[in-house]
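Quick check before the chapter quiz. The format below is the same one you will see on the exam, so make sure you can read both the input and the output lines.
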Amino acid sequence: MSKSDFANEFKKRTKSFSIEIIKLYRKLPKTDNAKNVGKQLVRAATSATSNFRATCRARLDNEFYSKISIVVE
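Here is the expected output.
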């Protein structure tokens, strides 16, 4: 699997993951605690997706590895 194939597959997977988390958030009870935890979960899931997309725009290998470590974190 090439780097490009991996990137495209991972983009699809992270986007799908974010969408599923948003659907889960919509199903949570409407209590304050559930809303707070749900919002944090949505931010974390969508953050991983957007950070990986930024990683794919890296110009150098060093930049790629630096950005991918943020996604993993």
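If your answer matched, good. The domain at 3-72 is CATH 1.20.1440.60 (de novo design (two linked rop proteins)).
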